[in-house]
Each structure stands twice: as C-alpha cells, then as structure tokens.
Amino acid sequence: MHLGWRLACAAISSAAVLNGGTFAAVKIENTKYSQYGNVVKLTNGIVDVMVTTDFGPRIIYYGFCGGPNILGELPKTEAVKTEFGEWHPYGGHRLWAAPEAMPRSYWPDNDPVQVEVMGDSSVKLTPPLEKGTGIQKRITVTMSRTGTGVTVLHEITNKNVWPVELACWALTIMNGGGTTIFPQEPFKPHGEVLLPARPLALWNYTDMTDPRWTFGKKFVLLRTDAARDFPQKIGAAVKAGWAAYLREGILFIKRFPYHEGASYPDFGCNFETFTKGTFMEVESLGPLVKLEPDKTVTHVEKWFLFKDCKAGDSEESLSAAIEPLLESAK
Questions:
Q1: Taking the alpha carbons of 17, 22, 28, 34 in that order, is the dihedral positive or negative?
Q2: Would you call 304 exposed, middle or buried from its count of C-beta atoms within 10 A (0-12, 13-18, 19+)?
C-alpha cells in the first residue's frame, strides 16, 4: 500500500468521527469500485462521488445513491501510445492543460495518487509530478452536506524553471446515450446590437449538417449516436457559465466561470464538447496564462444532478424543464 493511501486511511478515519457533537453530513471512506481498484468515496446520502487513487486521478463515479453513473467508464485496454508511454482515458473526469498537444497533453497518469482529506467534506488528490512536462496537477473534490452539489477545484503548478503558457482544462467523459446542451447567447434582433455576441470554434472534422447537432434559438445540442462512429466537436465562449448533459431523465449540470476580457484557448473557448459513437465529453476551460515557475493557476467547476427531467421534444419544453433547475444549481 503506497504512502499517500496509508495517510488517507488515517485521515479518513478521523474525519468520520463526531464533528462538533454531531456526525459529519458527508461520509468519506476507502473502497473499491468496478475495474478501477482503490477509490475514495464521498457520500451525503443523496449522491455518491468516487475518485480513483491507484492512477489518475479520475472522478470515476457521480450519481444518486444506488443509481446509475452519469459519468462514462472506459476499459483499460483503450490507450494512446506516445513517446512518454501509454496514456489511458479510463473514463470519468480529469484535468489537462490546454492547448492540446502531442505528446505533452498525453503524459501517462498510471501511477498511485497521494490522497489528503481536507476537513470533513473534501478530498485533495495529487498525482506524481509530470517529469516530462514539468507540470504538477491537483484536484480537490468537495461535496455539499445536502443536495447534489459537488465542487471540483483544479490546480496546475509550473515546476519548470521557465514560464509556460497554458490553461486549466477540465474534461468530463459522460455515460453514453445522452445529449449535451449548452446555451446560445440571449437573442436580440438585428439593429438592436451591431457587434457579434461570441466566438464559435470549429475543428476540421466538424460537420454542421450532421444530424447529431441541433442549433436552436436558445440552445446548441449534441447527441451521442452509436451508429455514427466518427467525431464531432465544437467550442464556444459560454458567457452564461453552464453546460448540461441529459441522459434517461437525469440532468447533469456543470457550472464554470467566464472572465470577460480574458484570453481563452482555441479561438476564445471556455467550453467544448466532443462526441464519437457513444463517447461524449463535456469540457470547460480556464483563461490562458503565462504561468511563472512555482506559480499555480486554478479553475473551479460546480456540479449538480437532477432526476425526472422531462425535456420534451421542442426547444420550448427543454427550456421550461432546464431553466428552473439552473436557478437552484448555484
């Protein structure tokens, strides 16, 4: 058992005891999950979150207690071969540094992760330093005492002796069979506003005639389709600061910031989504920064889950279903 895991065991045991005369609302424990081996599990009795510790880290499970996982799980056999070694997507949620580059983005994160329990509702996970890139990553997961809220703090520290330009890039692989939803800018008629509202980034393989896309007045939708095993991707400046994924009546919402005037990767994107077959990623990005040696940049997402989201077949019904939930997802 590696040192980080032993330290976590002691910390988790102390976090589970009485807190100010009452039991902590969030329980943190060591367990094993599926093919992923050792994980840290956080639960508040409403939702569970599990994070891998034998590799990654990956937030590999997020769902209602006893319910399906909204996050995608991939077999370990899936791999990308690089000059650094084999990188595995694994599934779930991870932290990368944008812009994407080969092999820098694909540093293999296959080694054990140091675990530190912070207070009685947070876990900090620190993988080994990426020796080939000089980048140190960390993810801290904090569960709300009630409800479904989870806060994910992403940190990147530059351990090189020179500055590096990068952005935090938070990528979430979703359980297939659903639809990504992100908002259009508020509609305003021609003549009322003269300047464009936001950039939209397209990749060479983006086909806007693909039936997986719906470009509506209020939302852009991207669906998974097992019969279409070729990729689609789009990026945008989502100033409203949210995106969602709807699967079998369960709505996942992630909130993330947009900093007016900041420089973002990929022609100004703080949000991107990608699909291929049943694979789907819902991604947020922080601003590009010139990160000096030993300095750290952070990026925060807030997650929420909702049951029985009846989206209907029209943009009007989708709007009626989602907008009240967005008000409570803060």
A1: positive
A2: buried
**Residue 330: band (very low, low, confident or very high) from pLDDT cuts 50, 70, 90:** confident
Q: Report whether 253 contacts 329 (CB < 8 A).
A: yes
pTM above 0.85, yes or no: yes
Phi, psi at residue 301, to the nearest 5°? -115, 150
Alpha carbon distances (Å) from 162 to 46, 156, 165, 289, 291: 45, 15, 10, 13, 9
Closest Cα partner for 137 from 71, 258, 56?
56
Residue-wise pLDDT tens digits, 202-260: 999 999 999 999 999 999 999 999 999 999 999 999 999 999 999 999 999 999 999 99
Q: Can you spell out the DSSP letters for 119-149?
A: TTTEEEEEPPPBTTTTEEEEEEEEE-SSSS-
Exposure string for 147-176, b = 16+ CB within 10 A, e = fewer: ebbbbbbbbbbbeeeeebebbbbbbbbbbe
Give the domain CATH number at 190: 2.70.98.10
Neighbours of 244 (CB within 10 A): 27
Maximum separation of any 2 CA atoms in the chain, in Å:
66
Q: What is the DSSP letter of 36?
A: G
Q: How many domains would you assign to the chain?
A: 1
Distance between CA atoms of residues 277 and 177, nearest Å: 9
CA–CA distance, 55 with 88 (Å, rounded to integer) = 10
Token reading at 57: 């880290």
Give the pLDDT of residue 8. Answer: 43
How far is 221 from 224, CA to CA, in rounded Å? 10
Name residue, tokens 């669906």: 223
Residue pLDDT, tens place only, 41-94: 999 999 999 999 999 999 999 999 999 999 999 998 999 999 999 999 999 999
Print the domain residue range for 172: 3-328
